[in-house]
Please model this.
Amino acid sequence: MQTAKFIPYTGVTYPPEETQERSKEYYEYMDRRRSIREYSDRPVDKKIIEQIIMTASSAPSGAHKQPWTFCAISDPAIKSAIREAAEKEEYESYNGRMSEEWLEALRPFGTDWKKPFLEIAPWLIIVFKKAYDLEEGKKSKNYYVNESVGIACGFLLSAIHNAGLVSLTHTPSPMNFLQKILNRPENERAFLLIPVGYPKEGVQVPAIDRKEKEEVIVYY
Model:
């Protein structure tokens, strides 16, 4: 049995007053994050996308298996193929798959099956979860895959916002067309499709309220 190696922790701590101020500032900054469906075609440097993704990949994971792959797409032909396939699935969803209750819940957001942002946004990041690892054709188990990849996606959205960019968590269902278009291996499953870029000039977002602290926090 291999013995784990440990190294000193070199994190940063702050005085209580600064900790309180930093937590307040970060909350207020993240509270400004919104999902955007209209994008500018203004380019975003590849290095920025790389650093954002590596921030996401610093997330904790079950047994440190890091069961994720981030596919970053800027190729117009691939983005076009993804849009075509996604709109096909979305059309089916909006015209039969979704319940009336679901459609009613979406109406305030003005969404439909058309997804032009999949071609206009300079980058698409497709997050794949690894149901298991494959090494030389042999399977090895991953642990808490959905939880781990979900946390990594949270890091990703935060890093995108921190860079002054905007995003959208897009989940056309089913998403197996992404595995086919990108020729991903059999152990990978599409988890989330995230357009990344700058907002279109003059873009508007729905007027929404977030739940108050009394509705989301329970102290014991």
Q: What stands out?
A: The first strand starts at residue 68 and ends at 73.
